[in-house]
Design goal:
14 strands; 10% strand; signal; 25 helices; D-Maltodextrin-Binding Protein, domain 2; four-stranded mixed beta sheet; Bact_solute-bd_prot1; ABC transporter substrate-binding protein
Length: 549
């Protein structure tokens, strides 16, 4: 360990010793560990302590590195401009200064930061999947610090939440029980935020019913291609979830193709069903039912295809997709009506086994305290506020009288959000004031947010349709909180790089016909040569350890 890291480790040890001493002297303090109190007075007192407020305390400066989403960057240039953070900086004695990598270079900037060891106090990024060796290795390397003791002593709201939700607590720990970040968690009753959609006005025009099976989809796309002269009857963004692969009961790109069946890890692109799926997609490509740009389509192109009425069916999100396409489409065609369709199955009456389910835990939007942080106690207290009732309200609704009003006990967005005077969409208006409609450290479990975010009848119906089979997905998808050991992560990185590159290359070739599916057995042999069985074994080991946490 270099001098810089040794100094940081010494500072960290000193800080933790001080934290322990303070804890011993303040065991009777109202802000100590305990359950969340619904009484506003007690809750406010706890929140004041959690945020580090105090008239006689000197302001503490924290540097906080986090990516700035491209769409959010159109309304603010820095998270410090967002109302919720302005309020926290004013109310607490913690002055957070955000630093953002250039859009599109987040991975590169993260890697450079790790190499230089010039660390900010807090990093919001995916150490679970982006740091070589994962969080355990990052702790071993002296980059980030474990948070168990700090949360136990100085984060009463988060501690209480984790005690009340052991399934969530399981997600954010390593196999040895180490809590390695302040998590971004969702506890919403809304189970899915996206899925397959179709132009209902066109279905009605030709007396067609909403599709249930893959065959239904094929028949509808064929009719609409012929009748409407469509160039891209079915379109989706590059590498977005493929609902038709799910209809065959396999994963392809989600979770890098891995899923489970009764606790046994399987790799989708190795299964017999994958060949059947590819055969169908190749047929669609040949017949002009599948968007010819399926392997390269970006968001701008996708938007154009939908709004120029070149696509009948798409995969999209309820908010940013349906919520924007329907109003914009109606400006050109008053009958434009994009609605949700249940995830397709092979046989009528079957249940979808995979959906785009809302994740409980988002490791990439959680906050990691680095060894450079000289104020870990105050930092944890600052973050703990976002798990309090008051903090959740600020994070989800902003400032009362400005972005919401209370109608009885129901926080109701004002026109600043719902009918923005600058003409901003609901999503962008929210982004000026709160980190609500995108994951962020804290807890998002207030149904009033999505009840108002989804304004259209089509959106309200989509929530129910897409979320209906979420429990099946929970049984079949791998948990987000799987943690490889340092050795496993190193081995997986080598295996994954070759395997994923090859699978994506052959996926495109098989569908476009550049490679005949008669050579599928040769494809499988190549995957075996690339040691896909070993990669599957490593995933199985991680799942087995996760199950006994």
């Amino acid at each position: 360990m270099g001098m810089k890291n040794r100094n940081r480790a010494l500072r960290m040890a000193s800080a933790l010793l001080m934290a322990t001493a303070i804890a011993g002297c303040s065991s009777n303090n109202d802000a100590g560990p305990g359950t969340r109190d619904s009484n506003h007075g007690n809750n406010a007192a706890s929140n004041a302590a959690s945020s580090g407020q105090g008239d006689n305390q000197q302001a503490i400066a924290l540097t906080y590195w986090a990516p700035l989403p491209a769409d959010v960057g159109t309304v603010v240039k820095n998270f410090n401009e967002i109302t919720m953070y302005k309020v926290r900086n004013e109310e607490s004695h913690v002055n957070v200064k955000f630093e953002h990598p250039a859009a599109g270079s987040e991975d590169e900037q993260f890697n450079l930061m790790m190499a230089s060891q010039e660390l900010p106090d807090v990093i919001e990024y995916d150490f679970l999947n982006k740091y070589p060796g994962g969080p355990d290795k990052a702790i071993e390397d002296g980059v980030i610090i474990p948070l168990n003791d700090l949360i136990d002593e100085y984060a009463p709201n988060l501690k209480s939440y984790l005690e009340e939700h052991p399934d969530h607590a399981k997600e954010i720990k390593t196999d040895s029980g180490t809590i390695y970040n302040i998590p971004s968690l969702s506890d919403s009753t809304y189970r899915s935020f996206g899925g397959p959609m179709m132009r209902k006005d066109w279905l009605d025009e030709y007396h067609l019913s909403l599709p249930e099976t893959v065959d239904d989809w094929e028949n509808i796309l064929t009719v609409l291609k012929q009748e409407k002269g469509l160039d891209a009857p079915y379109a989706k963004l590059q590498w977005m979830p493929d609902v038709f692969a799910w209809a065959y009961g396999i994963q392809v790109f989600d979770d890098q193709g891995f899923y489970q069946n009764n606790g046994t890890v399987l790799y989708g692109p190795m299964q017999p069903e994958y060949k059947a799926y590819l055969t169908r997609m190749h047929s669609w490509y040949e017949d002009g039912l599948l968007d010819p740009d399926f392997s390269t389509i970006d968001q701008k192109t996708m938007d154009a295809k939908v709004l120029q009425e070149e696509a009948a069916g798409i995969y999209g999100y309820i908010g940013g997709g349906m919520g924007q396409y329907n109003p914009a489409g109606k400006e050109k065609n008053e009958n434009f009506n994009l609605v949700a369709v249940q995830y397709p199955v092979l046989k009528q009456g079957d249940e979808p086994q995979f959906i785009n389910a809302a994740a409980i835990y988002q490791p990439g939007n959680s906050a990691y305290l680095t060894s450079a942080n000289e104020n870990p106690v105050e930092t944890v207290q600052w973050f703990d506020y976002w798990f309090s009732e008051e903090g959740q309200l600020l994070k989800s609704f902003g400032v009362e009288g400005q972005t919401y009003t209370m109608v009885g006990d129901y926080p109701t967005y004002t026109d600043e959000i719902l009918d923005n005077p600058e003409g901003l969409s609901i999503a962008l208006a929210m982004s000026k004031h709160m980190r609500t409609n995108k994951p962020a450290p804290g807890i998002q479990n207030l149904p009033a947010y999505l009840e108002q975010y989804y304004q259209m009848d089509q959106q309200k119906e989509a929530v129910q349709i897409f979320g209906k089979y979420a429990d099946n997905n929970v049984q079949n998808a791998l948990p987000k909180g799987l943690v490889p050991t340092a050795d496993e992560a190193k081995e997986m990185a080598k295996l994954n790089a070759n395997i994923q590159t090859y699978v994506k290359e052959m996926y495109t070739k098989f569908i476009m016909g550049a490679e005949s599916l008669d050579r599928f057995d040769e494809y499988l042999a190549t995957l075996n040569q690339l040691d896909v069985d070993r990669l599957t074994e490593l995933k199985q080991n991680q799942l087995d350890r996760y199950q006994v946490r």
